[in-house]
Amino acid sequence: MTKLRKFFWEKYTLDQLSQDEWEALCDGCAKCCLLKIVNKKKIFITNISCSKLEIESCRCSDYSNREKNVKACLKLTKDNLHKNFKFLPSSCSYRLISEGNPLPEWHHLLSKDQESVHRSNQSIQKYSVSETSVNIENYEDHIVAEITGK
Fold it and tell me: Would you say residue 2 lies in a domain?
């Protein structure tokens, strides 16, 4: 990893971030790793995480190959961020910065602690189940939110 510019999230736009800064901006909540159900024109978020997600750490076990090995993987980039806004929670660091909002106090760039996202209950660590433990016909039983708007 290259050296990150001091307070880069406050001084630069998302388009101006280096790849390392882009990666560092992720808060590690793993909410984008939750499976979605698309039903006609509605999108539902479940508490079911991708099989590649290590729930305890909220990290992908196959991060560098995630798009290739998981068809529905939501890989955020500078180019597709706005297209994927509807899939991002309001607490998402990329969304916050894009909208001109500050990072929350629990974000690791402010707290200097990678675990603060979990201690503040902002990650999926405590309520998610792996897709390997849920039969596909039971996915609807795991819906936790409906996406509307944007």
Answer: no
